[in-house]
Structure prediction request, 474 residues.
Amino acid sequence: MILRRITDSITHTVEDAIDGVSSALFDPVIRVGVTGLSRAGKTLFITSLVANLLERSRMPQLKSAAEGRILAAYLQPHPDHKMPRFAFEDHMAALTASDPVWPESTRSISTVRISLKVQPTGLLNGITGPSQIHIDIVDYPGEWLLDLPLMSQSYAEWSAATLEKAMTPGLAEHSSGFRDLLGQTDSAAPLNEMNANRLADAFKGYLAASREAGFSSMAPGRFLMPGDLEGSPALTFSPLPKAGKSGGGSLWRTFEKRFDSYKRVVIEPFFRNHFARFDRQVVLVDTLGAIHDGPRAVEDLRTALAEILTCFRPGRNSWLAPILGKRIDRILFAATKCDHLHHTQHARLAAITEAMVRDARDRARFRGAKTEAMAIASIRATVEQSVERNGETINVVRGRLQDTGKSAALFPGNLPENPSDILNPARMREGDWSDAAYSVTKFAPPILDLTPGEAPPHIRLDRAAEFLIGDRLT
Ligand SMILES: Nc1nc2c(ncn2[C@@H]2O[C@H](COP(=O)(O)OP(=O)(O)OP(=O)(O)O)[C@@H](O)[C@H]2O)c(=O)[nH]1
Ligand SMILES: [Mg+2]
Prediction:
């Protein structure tokens, strides 16, 4: 740490000497990637984190803030002109309106830079003045990480695996339309662009319907989250049953080429230009939503997370390994929306999330990355209450219902103390929980009415921030 400070002060001296060179070139930068599957809570996490870093009165667990060493925090114009800016102001405006709404769903990658002026601790306090550190926070869909396994598959291998998966219980009902269409298709026949589009659309329809039903690991990621590639030929293919002998202009060969170009122009540049540059990573997980959707959704989420996490520790032979080096050194797994539960259940939610990512997490740790799992709420939309019913105390949460705006006290069900009670039925892909029911009711955003100097209320966002960047603010 001392070494870094000294290096920093050297660069500052150099900077002073170079007239007209922006300080942004020399100040340290931490790149934090925020990912999670669709609706996991990425936009709200970043919005609330930025707001709570700008106004730090609700950040007691962020040590540097509690010690009063963050002297200033401000948003900077982002230096990366190729990436869209995260629409922080729009999202805050939606949340703080007199009739607040949740921010709109986002479909692509975006980033925001927040800069902190920090007074150093210990020996250097008093020797060096405050230093500036930039935190670049990048919002990107977790679905894009599900594409990594495609890089090591041929079109034939990917087709066979994807078609086999489409027949499994729970998914087969969503893929029937697509499979019917495949039944009428000859992969070896010459390409007919209209048929090709129809197949690609039916395949996308299957992925979207499965996602809607709570299945998470539906690759290729850009088919669900196309970003700016909507309608591109690189996204107009589907898996096909293996053709006998197929010539150059056949459907099979065309889709094979498009599959290869998807890898080359979509997957690889994302990993090379963005993913490989993160220092810290947050994986947001809607564990509660999956539990609500049932055991198969939980198992599917677990599989998707395991796939996502292989990106953090790619095998030695993977093309990604040399690009990635040893860069990401902290990974936070955060179960979001924990304000749906009374605090007495938060530890259980974190334990279930931790158990869900255990295998993958152990591998990441082996590689030297520090990991932690916690339950958080980026925006606290509820208050806690205890009610007496039949002589029993029940811990509930009260909030405004999304549908009616009316206030209601809800009991979402008791999460089990032992995560296996959730993960075992999930592994067995049982249809439903045998002796428990969990409900997740969507709450409307709280009416915030913030006074100057106040940021939105949250749960453990300060702990999340301490884990992610605290060590760099000393
Ligand atoms: N009560 C509560 N609801 C939350 C919280 N975080 C997320 N939500 C809910 O989850 C929804 C999705 O949150 P977003 O932050 O938009 O999620 P996202 O991952 O950015 O979603 P996409 O952009 O669609 O991928 C919100 O509209 C809220 O309804 C939270 O801390 N508390
Ligand atoms: Mg979003």
In short: The longest strand covers residues 110-118. The chain is about 35% helix and 15% strand.
